[in-house]
Design a protein that fits this description.
Elements: E1 2-6, H1 14-23, E2 28-32, E3 51-56, H2 66-81, E4 87-96, H3 104-120, E5 125-130, H4 133-147, E6 155-157, H5 164-172, E7 175-179, H6 189-194, E8 203-205, H7 217-228, H8 232-247
Parallel strand pairs: 1-2, 2-3, 3-4, 4-5, 5-6, 6-7, 7-8
Helix pairs in contact: 2-3, 7-8
Length: 249
C-alpha cells in the first residue's frame, strides 16, 4: 500500500508506528510539509524497506501575512531548485474556512504562488480544501485561464470529504481524489456517497497521520472497497498504481 499523505515530523514514536504499518503492507509514504521554512524530518530511523518521498509546501494554517507568504514561497522555490529525487510534489496548499485558520484572500495568494511553483518545477500539487470548495475550483480555473488549458497543473485533492458534484468537478479539472479517515465515519454521508463514483484511475488513499496511525491505512482501504463493492486487494493494487503515476514514484 502507498499512503499518499502523512506528516512524519508530527508522529510521536514514529519509527514504531511506521514499523507496525509496514507489517500491515505499507511500502511507501508521501511525507507532506506544512511550512518550507521549518524542518519536517522523522524523529528516529525508518523501518527497513519503507520508501519515503516528500511534498514541500505552505499549509493554509501557516498563512498569516503577505510578507510571510512571500518569504515562504521564496524558501520553497529555492528548495525546489535543488531538490532531490525524493521531492515529488508541492503542497499541501489551498483553502480552509475553519475558525482561526486564516483569511481567504491570503489563502488565495499562497495557493496561486504554489500553483506557479508547481508549474515551474513540473510537479503535481497536494491540495487542501476545507469548506471552500468553490474557492478551490475557481482558483484552479483562474490558473488555467492564465496559463492555458493545454498545461493544467496536476494534483490530488487530499483528505477529500465533499460532495459527489465537487468530486466530479475536481476530476474534470484533472485531479486525483485521496480518501482518508473520514470514510470510516458513517456520518460522512456526502463523502461515502461520492466514493463509489470516483473514477478508478483517479483514486488514492491516505491516513493524514497523525492522529490516525499509519497502520490504519488498511482500514481505509477496506472501507473504500466495501463502498465500491470490490475487494481490499483490488483497491490496494489500483491505488498503488495511481499513486505511482501521480507522484512518479
Amino acid at each position: 500500500m502507498i499512503d499518499t499523505h502523512i506528516h512524519l515530523d508530527l508522529l510521536d514514536d514514529g519509527p514504531a508506528l511506521l514499523a507496525a504499518a509496514v507489517a500491515q503492507g505499507l511500502t511507501h509514504v508521501v511525507s507532506v510539509g506544512v511550512d518550507p521554512r521549518v524542518s519536517a524530518a522523522l524523529r528516529g530511523p525508518l523501518p527497513g524497506g519503507l520508501v519515503v518521498v516528500r511534498a514541500l509546501g505552505l499549509h493554509p494554517q501557516e498563512v498569516r501575512s503577505t510578507g510571510g507568504i512571500d518569504s515562504a514561497l521564496a524558501s520553497l522555490d529555492a528548495q525546489l531548485q535543488v531538490r532531490g529525487v525524493d521531492v515529488v510534489a508541492v503542497g499541501e496548499c489551498g483553502f480552509d474556512a475553519r475558525p482561526g485558520i486564516g483569511d481567504a484572500a491570503l489563502h488565495g495568494r499562497a495557493f496561486a504562488g504554489q500553483l506557479a511553483l508547481a508549474r515551474r518545477h513540473d510537479l503535481p500539487v497536494v491540495l487542501h480544501g476545507v469548506r471552500r470548495d468553490g474557492a478551490m475550483l475557481a482558483a484552479l480555473d483562474d490558473d488555467v485561464a492564465t496559463h492555458g488549458a493545454a498545461r493544467p497543473v496536476r494534483g490530488v485533492w487530499h483528505g477529500f470529504s465533499s460532495s459527489l458534484d465537487t468530486m466530479r468537478a475536481a476530476v474534470a479539472r484533472g485531479l486525483y481524489i485521496s480518501v482518508g479517515v473520514m470514510v470510516l465515519n458513517e456520518k460522512a454521508r456526502r463523502l461515502r456517497a461520492a466514493v463509489p463514483h470516483i473514477p478508478a484511475d483517479r483514486l488514492v488513499v491516505e491516513t493524514d497521520a497523525p492522529p490516525l496511525a499509519p497502520a490504519r491505512l488498511r482500514d481505509v482501504v477496506a472501507a473504500v472497497a466495501a463502498l465500491r463493492g470490490t475487494t481490499a486487494a483490488a483497491i490496494e493494487q489500483q491505488t498503488r498504481h495511481n499513486a505511482r503515476a501521480l507522484f512518479a514514484i
